[in-house]
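Sample entry (319 residues):
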Amino acid sequence: MTALWALVVIINKRVLADIDPLAVNFFVRIASIAGLLLITLPLTALRLWDNGFGINAAAAGWMALAAVTTWLIAFSAYYYALRGERVAVMAPILSTDPLWTALFAWLIIGSTFGVLTLAGMAVAMAGVLLITRWMGAGDDAVLGAVAGAAHGEVLPGPPAPGAAAPLRAGRLRLVALAVLAAAGWGLGPVFIDQASTAYGKPTATMMIMSQALGMLMLGAVLLGRRRPLTARALDPPERRRVALLLALGGLLEACVSVLFFLAIAEIGPVLTVLIMATTPVFALVFGVAFLRERVGLRLVLAAAVTVIGVMLAAIDGVS
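Predicted structure, serialized as tokens:
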């Protein structure tokens, strides 16, 4: 599950070189809906799980809130952030979503968390601050450079002194988008938990409804913007490659969604989140292998600090 999600991140990063982030979000929703149907229909028909299909009005209302939070806000911020920076930079920040889940669960439904969770939050946020400081320094490439290098472009040298302020502003914007995505991903599970409670269990209908609402909202935004969906004119082979990557990313995302639900049923939400916190490790390796990203030692250290903070918070739930 975790390795598949890291692979989805790599695919998304590659597609964003050619397609507008909101358009990527829209098309991936379509592919994810198809993937969920392909997975959940046989599971239900063959009675390989007891989640099945079903929903009531209260659950539908919670899932509508989850769709706005997750697909319209969080995933849009995620795609914009991922387009502008390396996977190794964004993945650790995005992995802080369990901390946001704990915070929103406390604010909305009165859940409690212990001292270790607070310590984990502090450590993770320290890691995010280190990433913000180091993501464009030292042997790390400047913003967007590695993405261009993956397409044969020459990496630029150190920025001129006068460019330092715009680069810092750009880094802060990217980190803010990543934090917004993580916060949205953290709030979504709280709404999903409320929907599951309202109906009695999570169902495939909830998964599909959420994706479908996200697709409709994103489609409305795209129609209202009236902007090109591609960064440049694509020739037929490029269009076929992009379509294949979008379909693959959506199908893999559907697999991750179902595995996430099944993992929670088997080992509980805390251990599932703890396992998912290792996503940046896979993302870093895949980024170097498939996108030829360059990762400095300090950035690896900052990513490790962030992941350790998330794990501390999750371990508190286990204990």
